[in-house]
Predict the structure.
Amino acid sequence: MQTVITLEQVRETAEAVRGYLKVTPRVAIILGSGLNTLAEAVQGARVVPYRELPHWPLSTVVGHSGQLVIGELEGCPVFVMQGRIHYYEGYPMSQVTLPVRVMQVLGIKTLIVTNAAGGINPDFVPGDVMLITDHINLIGMTGLNPLIGPNWDEFGPRFPDMSQAYDRELMNLAREAARGAGITLREGVYVGLSGPSFETPADLRFLRLAGADAVGMSTVPEVTVARHGGQRVLGLSGISNKANLDGSTITTHEEVMAAGRVITPKMETIIRGVLQRLHD
Ligand code: HPA
């Protein structure tokens, strides 16, 4: 039985983070695989290695550094997670999503999640950025929902609404930001699996039939907890590889990391554009 994080522990972590804050960050940004260099754009950065924070899970994946970068982007106080934790690393869901609870205790109302994903939609090519308009919580449907267990009423209701998991206003800001910079922004549905093995061709055909445009191993648990706690969410997927529905090619982690180098500047431009346009 995996240990479950308690509310007391969440508060302890939040207290530790608070010690590094000068102001309450307005926006939290979680950086996905291969997208870590985005944190280098943060000005006046205060860097906090995850290992200095009690209960914070440590990322074990190549391409995920493990630190918080607290500072400003486009004049907006931001809290950037350079390196995220995935369920497949062996942490319980409550620990995978502990950072999101900490954001909520700190009063951060807006979350931008990024990830690397396989493109299932045949129109998508590696290097594309996809605005996540909705997700399929396949990992949750099969029993791994981070909200399983006693409900934390102080954050949100037992049965939280997920009809607008991704905030419409933030989606519009991302569209405007991309358009303004001449970046093609794809749109679609992200399906979250546990990983770490990549999908079989039959898995991928099934996911396509189910309506997914992109597939990955993160994001959905964090967004579920974010919505439970009343945060508004913007999700962006970097399409790092074409999902291989006919079994003719293989997907590698190296490929995912390499695509990140093409995707990062686009993501940075879109995120900067959103922050410039953010009013509340
Ligand atoms: N499948 C699952 N997760 C991923 C992929 C993929 O093809 N690419 C990047 N993350």
Q: What stands out?
A: The first strand starts at residue 27 and ends at 31. The longest helix spans residues 253-277. The helical segments are 7-18, 93-96, 98-106, 138-141, 168-180, 201-209, 220-228, 253-277.
